Amino acid sequence: MKPKVAFICVHNSCRSQMAEALGKMFASEVFESYSAGTELRPQINQDAVRIIKELYNVDMNETQKSKLLTDIPEVDIVVKMGCNVVCPFLPSRHMEDWGLDDPSGKSDEEFIKTAKIIEEKVKDLAKRIQNNEIDLTVERDIR
């Protein structure tokens, strides 16, 4: 069974959405991608949507929406996108923080840079899962 990965941040409108889209694009044979946050946004960040469409030809408006942590299934791996505030907590077997700055309100260059970093990190995560570098046999940390 493929592990489920949740990309989370507070608003689930920009970085976590980009990660969900790129996870589905580059790592769907290794893991299932979800994204969620603690607050809903009426729509995904439209700059992120535009950049992902330009770079990868994926329309997140059609395939994704803002979701709460309670809207997604139980996951094995949690990836925090990098919150300057307290990141949401979600039970998982493995957790890591990618520490990405939020490009919202910044230039297209910042969005492109963020997308490329996420692409690299998604591919690296897939490789680590395939190489069994992440122990998914441990109990879910439910604190």
UniProtKB/TrEMBL annotation:
<protein>
    <submittedName>
        <fullName>Low molecular weight phosphatase family protein</fullName>
    </submittedName>
</protein>
<dbReference type="GO" id="GO:0046685">
    <property type="term" value="P:response to arsenic-containing substance"/>
</dbReference>
<keyword id="KW-0059">Arsenical resistance</keyword>
<feature type="domain" description="Phosphotyrosine protein phosphatase I">
    <location>
        <begin position="3"/>
        <end position="128"/>
    </location>
</feature>
<dbReference type="Pfam" id="PF01451">
    <property type="entry name" value="LMWPc"/>
</dbReference>
<dbReference type="InterPro" id="IPR036196">
    <property type="entry name" value="Ptyr_pPase_sf"/>
</dbReference>
<dbReference type="InterPro" id="IPR023485">
    <property type="entry name" value="Ptyr_pPase"/>
</dbReference>
